[in-house]
Structure of Molybdopterin-dependent oxidoreductase:
Amino acid sequence: MTSPDAPHQPAPDNPAEAARAAADRTPLTPAQAQAEQAALRGAATRSRRAFLGLGLAGLAGLAGWRYLLHSPDADGIPRDLRKVLDFNGKLTKDYFAHTRLAPEFARSRARQLRLNGNVGLGQDFDPATWKLTVQGYAPAGAPARRQEFTLADIKALPRTEMTTELKCIEGWSVIVHWAGVRLSDFLARYPLATSSGQPIADLRQPPADAAKFVGLVTPDEQYYVGLEMYAALHPQTLLAYELNGVPLTLAHGAPLRLVTPLKYGVKHLKRIGTIAFADQRPADYWAEQGYDWSGGH
Ligand SMILES: Nc1nc2c(c(=O)[nH]1)N[C@H]1C(S)=C(S)[C@@H](COP(=O)(O)O)O[C@H]1N2
Ligand SMILES: [Mo]
C-alpha cells in the first residue's frame, strides 16, 4: 500500500494501446481546444434531433473521438442504451445504475494523476478541523436533518479500492488507484437519503421517499456538482481519501473527494464540504457553463 505517485509514463502492452495513449497525451492547440469547447457547449444546449441535423460527420471531424464519447443527452444515458431507454426507461436506468461498470485495471497500471481544476480549493482551509456536513433529505417544509462527520467516521466505514480511469472532458485520461468509502455504504450506515430515515435496502429500487438527486459543494461553495441518485448509489461511486496508495494531497482534494468513473472528471469534486440530498437537480458548476449536466461518458 505504499506505491508512490511516481511521475513516469505508462508502458503500453500493445501498439493499439500505445497509439491511444499517445493520442491521449497530445495536447490540443488553442484553436482545436476552442473548437471542441464550442462543439461541446453547442451540443449540450441543442436538442438531440437538431444536433443530428447539423451533420454528425462535420462535428466528429472537429472534435474527434472525444466528442463521440461525450453524451449530449441531458440524463447521461449513452447512445447505445438510448433505444432501450426509449423502450423502457426504468429498466434501462436500473441497468445503467448497477450492471454497467466502468472498466477496472490492474493496480500496476496506475499512474500519477494530472492536476486539473482548483476552483473551491482556496488557501483559507484547515484539513485538521474539517468536517463533512450531510444535509439529509427533507422535502420542502420538513425540518432539516443535518449531520457532521470527521474523516475518522468516514474511515471507520467499509473500505473500497479500485483502479479506474479518470477522464477529463478536455480529452486526457489517467488510470489511477483510489481508496475510500462507497457513497452507498455510507448511506447504509447513515440513511440520510430518504425523508423517513429508512435505509435503501435495494439499490436498484430506492423507496418512494428517497431523494432523486445529490449535490456536493466545496467548503467555500465555489465548486459544486450534482448527481442523479442512481449514480450516487452506483458501486463505483466513492468518497475517496487515498490516491495511489497515499492520503490525498490538498491539490487532489484532501481530506475527501468524490470519484465516479462513469462520469467525466468535472464531477469528481475535490474537497467535499457538504453533501445534500434533493428532489431537484442541484446546481452544477460546469453545467452552468453549458456542459451536459449529467456528465456521463
Ligand atoms: N473543487 C474542485 N474539484 C474539481 C475541480 C475543480 O476545479 N475544483 N475540477 C474537476 C476536473 S475538471 C477534473 S478533470 C478533476 C481533476 O482531478 P485531479 O486534479 O485530482 O486530477 O477534478 C475535478 N474536481
Ligand atoms: Mo476535467
Summary: The chain has nine helices and ten strands.
